[in-house]
Design brief:
Elements: H1 5-10, H2 12-15, H3 21-30, E1 32-36, H4 42-51, E2 56-60, H5 85-96, E3 101-105, E4 119-122, H6 127-140, E5 144-150, E6 153-159, H7 170-173, H8 184-187, H9 191-210, E7 219-224, E8 229-234
Parallel strand pairs: 1-2, 1-4, 2-3, 4-5
Antiparallel strand pairs: 5-6, 6-7, 7-8
Helix pairs in contact: 4-5, 4-9
Length: about 250
């Protein structure tokens, strides 16, 4: 896939990196990514991926922008309140990366909905959707980049149970929804933590697409915003997992 002079200029800093280079930039331009959730995680993640030259981004979200979102969903402004998140985010992405094809899905994703991306990104905030995305990723043999944030902490991982044998899936990590799961609207979340998590999610997607480095497969990166400390914890496949152990 030949790059235009404009694309070469835009991606010049990535081309300088030996781990990406021209071939990696071409892979990004040919890549398709599906992002479920256009909020505090999915929105900034989409902005970085579009800026990196990803060729197609599919956005799923049924919500409209609320003023309470603006504390952390930096892709939106006061003028966006009341408008569909996918519409405003798509406009923002096209303004900064006109070569990126944006597919808007202004509804809540369900397991019956086909996802166009080769890489799936979970930017949701509920376990029902996370479990469903995990099942789809495993069954279709696609990697799933997952992130979460609450209060002062966040976590990022890549689940590739359908890609590599013996890899854990999301349900190996979280077998069932915690009975006292905390929602940000109930306990709060500090804005920059969601940005850090979203940036890590975009980074993991880029590594998967370009083949650079080692994606967080079989690991979860745990971030503590208060202490400034992060650590990676190794995950193991659950031999009794209903999704990936068969």
């Amino acid at each position: 896939m030949a790059l235009t002079p404009e694309q070469l200029e835009r991606q010049s800093r990535h081309i300088l990196l030996k781990e990406i280079g021209g071939p990696g930039v071409q892979k990004l331009a040919a890549a398709r990514v599906s992002i479920v959730g256009a909020g505090a995680l999915g929105g900034p993640c989409a902005m970085y991926l579009a800026a990196a030259g990803v060729g197609e981004i599919e956005l799923w979200d049924a919500d409209t922008v609320d003023r309470s979102n603006l504390q952390r969903q930096v892709q939106f402004t006061e003028a966006d309140t009341g408008h569909l998140k996918v519409d405003r985010l798509a406009e923002r992405l096209n303004a900064s990366a006109p070569d990126c094809r944006i597919i808007r899905q202004a509804r809540r994703w369900s397991e019956a909905d086909a996802l166009s991306g080769d890489v799936l990104i979970d930017g949701t905030d509920n376990f029902e959707t996370r479990f469903a995305l995990n099942r789809v990723a495993h069954a279709s043999g696609r990697p799933l980049v997952s992130g979460a944030a609450t209060r002062w902490s966040g976590q990022v991982s890549v689940f590739a149970s359908g890609v590599e044998t013996g890899q854990p899936c999301y349900q190996c990590f979280v077998p069932e929804a915690p009975p006292m799961a905390e929602a940000c609207e109930d306990v709060g979340v500090v804005g920059p933590v969601t940005g850090i998590v979203a940036s890590h999610m975009a980074l993991e997607a880029m590594k998967i697409i370009t083949g650079a480095g080692r994606p967080l497969m079989g690991q979860v990166l745990i971030l503590d915003g208060l202490s400034g400390v992060s650590r990676a914890v190794k995950l193991r496949q659950d031999t009794d997992c209903p999704v990936c152990s068969a």
